[in-house]
Amino acid sequence: MKKIVSLLIVVALFCSCSDYQKVLKNEDVAAKFEMATKMYDAGKYSKAIRLFEQLAPSYRGKPQAEKLFYMFSQSYYKTHQYYLAGYQFESFVSGYPRSEKVQEAAFLGAYSYSKLAPVYSLDQADTVKALEKLQAFIDNYPNSEYIAQANESVKVLNGKLEKKAYENAKGYNTISDYKSALVAFDNFIADFPGTPLKEDALFYKYDSAYKLAINSIPQKMEERLNVAKVAYNNLIKFKSDTKYKEQADEMYARVETDLQKYTK
């Protein structure tokens, strides 16, 4: 009995595949639409996409086009083809602004771009683009049921930009380019005032100022020692019990000692 059931399943699958191939090759758009819908409902999105790609040019402007392009967009999204999904969802929103699916499509279009955002250590052009798309969604649909998800995505993407900016600044410190490090840390602190990395940024800014000062030519040392002193005070003002306090205090003692040479 089990063998018979298994055989019937295999036959059904073969027939289904055979029917799909026939529809794929013929010119009957109604049959293609029916089969595409069947594949979509069965979760066979890659097969549905092949049919949607054939149908799209001839269905624009037709009554069933809204359903077709929604399924087409979703199929790209379900198969993780996020560039194409983003494009198709945006086209859907533009073409069917009164659709009951418009908010969902607008969100998924923007969210698709967030799926393309790379790890923080790589170029963040796609992250910036995703943030622009999500912010546009938030501005256009402030009361949408997808707002919480959009805001969470924005938070995650901003976190990547934040980490990228911090690591870039710290990288200058690591390679002893202290002038560039000071500028980069100033920019980081200004751009991300609420960052959880602020204590670290303030310390490495101080560290950069300190090392720049003690390695300066005599003519620039006093000025740079005073810059380091200000950086130390900013760190302690932000967090008096900073995890870097012992190291920071040791550096500060030298700053004070070296500054005394200029007060005599």
TrEMBL record:
Outer membrane lipoprotein BamD-like domain residues are 30-218
Q: Which Pfam families match?
A: YfiO (PF13525)
Highest taxon above the source species: Bacteria
The record ties this protein, via InterPro entries, to: BamD, BamD-like, TPR-like_helical_dom_sf
- The answer to whether UniProt assigns keyword Signal to this entry is yes
Gene3D superfamilies with a match to the protein in the record: Tetratricopeptide repeat domain
Keywords attached to this Swiss-Prot or TrEMBL record, sorted alphabetically, are: Cell outer membrane, Membrane, Signal
Q: Is Signal given among the entry's keywords? A: yes
The record's listing under PROSITE patterns reads:
PROKAR_LIPOPROTEIN
Recorded protein name is: Beta-barrel assembly machine subunit BamD
Give the species this sequence originates from: Flavobacterium resistens
Q: Which taxonomic lineage is given here?
A: Bacteria, Pseudomonadati, Bacteroidota, Flavobacteriia, Flavobacteriales
